[in-house]
Amino acid sequence: MSEPAPWLGKDLIGLEDLTAEQILTILDTAEPFKEISERRIKKVPVLRGKTIVNLFFEASTRTRISFEFAEKRLSADTVNISSTGSSVTKGETLVDTARNLEAMRIDMVVIRHAASGAARFLAERIPSSVVNAGDGWHEHPTQGLLDLLTIRDHRGPLKGLKVCIVGDILHSRVARSNIYGLRTLGAEVAICGPRTLLPPAPHEMGCIVFRHIEEAIEWADVLNVLRLQLERMQNGFVPSLREYNRIWGVSSRRLEAAPRDILVLHPGPMNRGVEIDSDVADGPHSVILNQVTNGVAVRMAVLYLLAGGRPETAEAAKQGAEA
Amino acid sequence: MSEKTFLKGGRVVDPSQNLDGTRDVLLIDGVIASLGTKLSAPEDARVIDCAGLVVTPGLIDVHVHLREPGGEHKETIATGAEAAAAGGFTAVCAMPNTDPPIDNPAAVGYLLSRGRAAGFARVYPVGCISAGRAGQRLALIGEMVDAGAVAITDDGSPVMDSGLMRLALEYSQTFGIPVADHPEDLGLSASGHMNEGIVSARLGLGGKPNASEDIHIVRDLLLAELTGGHIHFQHVSTRFGVESIRQAKLRGVRVTAEGSPHHLILTHEAVEGYRTEAKMNPPLRTQEDVDAVRAGVADGTLDTIATDHAPHHYDEKEAAFADAPNGIVGLETALGLILTRVVGEGVIDLSTMVDRMSCQPARVFSLPGGTLTEGGPADVTVFDPAAKWKVDSARFKSKSRNTPFEGWELTGRPKWTIVGGRIVWEG
To answer: Which domains does chain B have, with CATH numbers?
Structure first.
């Protein structure tokens, strides 16, 4: 085991737990790692000899692959465990899974689970570092970080920026990580969507609420447009996808009315023509693919720091020295 | 040869006879033989010096889950009844949501015989409202009452069908028993795991809004008014619920209700950190609701304090929050918690506490006891109001340890629990 990084701790469970300094340090550490992915040989020995388990209890393509690239480009040994359905239905409890992994002497676990709190639950029970890759509706901190990095890349420091998260906030771990991270860095945060999909007590969470997307666009510097899960319609939160698109969809026509040049993010995968129109997704406002690229760099930074790497030596580590 | 116990010089608090003063109590053959000042102890009596201690009619908990049959890894009737005795309770009412449920006279008889065999606190069975707790048609209510059931409930689940609830409130009247309801509209709460509010929003957990409880309380009050039946609300946790019951009592509706120690003491903030030991149903709510439940117990809107003792095996609670079962154990912490945090904070006085934990439970469920009048059953609780102790679940008599009060420093602890003249617990 490496010495835990004192300023980040053993685990990354959520952005709510981090200070502004910690968040900025992760973003700054991601900067030198961006370049590795641009090399011909995309590999440095930073995490050589470290064993990382990617424990995915929920289907995921993009997040799992992004973590896997980050791990492999840092030379970690990785194992993927995927299981749709919860650990409970599988017959083994989460705590048993954790103890079994621990018995195999691993260094880090990246966990995705359908239950809010699952990552923290695991972190409290095993000595290995735990990285939350999404727990229920709670948090998806690396997504939050890559969103912050992408906004910073295009609009500079986040303090004072106006960011509106659009769509299903209630069930969204991406929304929560964004709200916590953005507010900690001094951005103004708003949410917009049907009231059925907004959390209770949004003002107590420090969010402005817009009922109409037009108002949000009038106000915002940045829109972070969330995916509308198909099952939300099946469960009656919205009557139809077409109606959702007509009322809350982000279209280029609506963006044209904006008083300023709006940046549009989307954590993917997109439902084109539902929450976002193709001409926006593929248009000049969109930084959606930059988010994906930044995702690998941010995850490299998180893994490096949790493994005991120091922010100030990230540049040297990248050149071939070990963490 | 008769069995005699002499409780000498304790502070006797018995609201059933407006009594709070130093008295001696003589118990002979399971009956309260005499109560007075400066009585002389018969030579063959066991004399217990109660100086500095409080002597009350035996505490009664009208809402406990003993898990037998079907959940014996969590609790059995014997361990639950012993936990009750250790908590100062001389009687408990066992909920019927076992596996299989208590929905027929044979099952009621089984519970009674197991309770008697255990020989700790008295165990009174509560039968189901609906056959199989399925919410479809009435269970064998008359036959269960004949066999010894003292009330009916589908607790753990609400009766969602208003028509069935009406039938229960009508049919039960022949037998003079209350219909106890777990008020919850599942359409509003099924996706919830805790109180709906800022804490659920932050933690990303589905919420149960107050309205999910309030709607059923109001519905049942209307049905009780319609039918003249006796509705008893279990574990009331909301401010609107308390106020609705208060207003209904003023209108003369036959309604009684209970508040639980945890809803008198904790708020939804106890869930922070996904603490499954603070997961229960109804959930812990806001401070405003806690204040309302306190006011309800103080003014008698909530007639009884009942624990909703809900044991779960440790590895069932050792899970992600959404996957953990609802409920906490309560029998062995209730008296200390109420003395320390409710009486101690001036919400109610000692006499009111005894009323809500002994006299009213006996009245509401028509049980023996709840009084130290001569000729009544010798069910007596003696506690030390000054004893300081720390909650240590490892020492519980209950089989389960799921308490959010672990490590709490409390003042006031049972010293002797006497059932039918027999000492079943000595602290």
So the answer is: 4-55+376-426 (2.30.40.10), 58-364 (3.20.20.140)
The reply to whether residue B322 touches residue A88, judged by beta carbons under 8 angstroms, is: no
Strands B31-36 and B54-57: unpaired
Q: Is residue B268 within 8 angstroms of chain A, CB to CB?
A: no
CB B267 within 8 A of CB B290: yes
Query: Parallel, antiparallel, or unpaired: how do β-strands B422-426 and B409-419 relate?
Result: antiparallel
- Lookup: tokens for A264: 């549009």
C-alpha–C-alpha distance, residues B117 and B123, integer Å: 10
Asked if residues B208 and B147 have their Cβ atoms less than 8 Å apart, the reply is no
User: Amino acid identity, residue B391?
Assistant: V
Summarize pLDDT for A14-37 with one digit per residue, the tens.
999 999 999 999 999 999 999 988
Helices then strands (H, E): number in chain A?
Answer: 14, 9
Q: Is B82 on the interface with A (CB under 8 A)?
A: no
Residue of A34, A112, A138, A227 marked active site: A112
Interface confidence (ipTM) of the complex = 0.91
Query: Residue B15, preceding bond cis, omega within 30 degrees?
Result: no
Please give the full DSSP string across B277-305, using - where no structure is assigned.
GG--SSPP--HHHHHHHHHHHHHTSS-EE
Cβ-Cβ contacts under 8 Å, A136 against chain B: 204-205, 320, 322
Annotated catalytic residue within A64, A120, A140, A173: A140
Answer yes or no: is pLDDT of A322 > 70.
no
B/e letters for B342-375, b = 16+ CB within 10 Å, e = fewer, are: bbeeebbebbbbbbbbbbbbbbbbebbbbbbeee
Would you call B43 exposed, middle or buried from its count of C-beta atoms within 10 A (0-12, 13-18, 19+)? exposed
Terminal-to-terminal C-alpha distance of chain B: 27
pLDDT digits (tens, 9 = 90+) for A100-120: 888 999 999 999 999 999 999
Cα–Cα distances in angstroms (integers) from residue A285 to residues A145, A274, A278, in the given order: 20, 17, 12
CB B310 within 8 A of CB B280: yes
Are A116 and B320 a contacting pair at CB < 8 A? yes
- Burial class from Cβ neighbours inside 10 Å (0-12, 13-18, 19+) for residue B225 reads middle
**What pLDDT is attached to residue A6?**
53
| Cβ atoms within 10 Å of B392's Cβ, excluding its own | 12
> How long a stretch of residues is chain B?
427
Please indicate whether residue B61 is annotated as part of the active site.
no
